[in-house]
Amino acid sequence: MRKNANLQQLIRASVLIAIGVILPQIFHGVKDAGSVFLPMHIPVLIGGFILNPLYAALVGIITPIMSHLLTGMPPFPFVYVMILELAAYGILISLIYNKGKRNIYVALISSMLLGRAVNIAGNYIILHLFMNKPFNIKMVVTGLFVKGLPGIAIQLALVPVIVLALKKSLYKSVAEYER
């Protein structure tokens, strides 16, 4: 039974990674739409709800790496910031929602805030320490919270609906499978 559970986790993670690579391409055709609507975040956030912390973290790590290798987005060196941020989303949601048994919105909002804190720290490390450029926290926070506001709104509106539909569908298919 354990092998079957790991296989299910692997398949779900793989599908979410594929979506996380493909979905941003739809948005990157329009200037800055990717950084406004945050399409890569959506499958990672969903992964946190339907995967255990390890697989959720892997979706957050592998998605930006694959996207960068295949499309050049997110650009170097900020792909590393995305890896840290998205991995944090996956782990935190999975721990808060699945292990901590918290409300879907509590898990989503708290992980979004903590993931953005990881993003700020990652930007500081890359800009200030490695690129020897000034770190402007106001600019970074504005980019994360103001420029990304449409994406945040989409995440808050769509992710819970998608997760609840997936949970219902997955539960139904498991129940039918076990008959």
Automatic annotation (TrEMBL):
Molecular-function GO terms, alphabetical: transmembrane transporter activity
InterPro entries: ECF_trnsprt_substrate-spec
UniProt key word ATP-binding: no
Source species, domain of life: Bacteria
Any Pfam family hit: ECF_trnsprt
Transmembrane annotation, as ranges: 12-30, 42-66, 78-97, 104-127, 139-166
Annotated keywords: Membrane, Transmembrane, Transmembrane helix
Protein's recorded name: Niacin transporter
Protein species of origin: Clostridium amylolyticum
